[in-house]
Amino acid sequence: MSIDEVIQRIQLLDTPTIIGIEGASGSGKTTLGRELASRLNIEFIDLDSFVISCDEPVPYVTQIDIESLQERVRELNERNNSFVILGICLRDVLATISATIGISIYVKQVSSARLWHFGFDIESYNSESETNEIYEFEPYKSDIRYHQRVEPHVGSELIYEYVAD
């Protein structure tokens, strides 16, 4: 699906709406989110801008300044504004502030060999059999577990897939 097709689908929705963008770390969520926000002339929120620095590796969701995020989302909702919000573990984070996505978009970066940008196919990933140590550290560890549990790549209304080689 192209960005123009994504925009056409969004424009068919009742407004205001929360446009949630999910995808693995480094998949291109921010690039897509900024482009959508710019072309639709709406607000843009990246969960990474609400991350609180931590000296120890903790799950991604626990790194988010929930109060500040909740205040920003409340402010946009009170102004009756549509907005784009993106991040890894997005549904888990939004559940903590009782916010609901109006339309979910999944960004799936793949190689020409059709492997996910992780370098493996996430649907069949088994952390015990993989040797790539990077996925044992945050935020990648949270990302993998979230994908396996929530399956945002299956449950999103729109899939924005592109080949990045």
Structural descriptors:
about 160 residues; alpha/beta; Rossmann fold; about 35% helix; about 15% strand; P-loop_NTPase; Uridine kinase; Shikimate/glucono_kinase
Question: What does this molecule look like?
Answer:
This protein has six helices and five strands; from the N terminus they run H-E-H-E-H-E-H-E-H-H-E. It has one domain (3-163): Rossmann fold (3-Layer(aba) Sandwich), CATH 3.40.50.300. It is 34% helix and 17% strand. A five-stranded parallel sheet has the order 2-3-1-4-5. It has helices at residues 3-11, 29-40, 66-78, 90-96, 140-150, 152-155; strands spanning 18-23, 43-46, 83-86, 103-110, 158-163. This is Uridine kinase.
By CATH reckoning, the class would read Alpha Beta
Unreliable spans are none
How much helicity do the residues have?
25-40%
* Count of runs of 4 or more consecutive helical residues: 6
Q: Going across the major beta sheet, what is the strand order?
A: 2-3-1-4-5
Mean pLDDT: 82
SSE inventory with pairings:
Layout: H1 3-11, E1 18-23, H2 29-40, E2 43-46, H3 66-78, E3 83-86, H4 90-96, E4 103-110, H5 140-150, H6 152-155, E5 158-163
Parallel strand pairs: 1-3, 1-4, 2-3, 4-5
